[in-house]
Amino acid sequence: MAQNYNQLRKGANEVTKTLKRGISELVILAGDATPLEILLHIPLLCEDKNVAYVFVRSKQALGRACGVSRPVIACSVTALEGSQLTPHIKTIFNEIERLLI
Description:
This protein is an alpha+beta fold and 101 residues long. It has 4 helices and 4 strands. It has a single domain (8-100), classed as CATH 3.30.1330.30. The protein has helices at residues 12-21, 41-49, 59-65, 86-100; strands spanning 8-10, 24-30, 52-56, 74-78. A 4-stranded mixed beta sheet has the order 1-4-2-3, with helices on both faces. It is globular and about 35 Å long.
């Protein structure tokens, strides 16, 4: 859905950029990324910036969810003022927070 609103950035480098710029709302990481070390800095950045992040099992499934045929190891849903996705992002953020408690 975020892809349709041009609020989706794919790849570890793009996710890192959005986190450092402070425009990231939600980060999704693939648990089967090899080597896993290419993703290990992202959860630390997320916690510094208070951005919710989750791991999914498969980079293939994450790629399909992002609307591409290639595997994706990380993606970020970015903030956009007045976006229709804002309530959905807040709901997801609240669900993630609830899982952590």
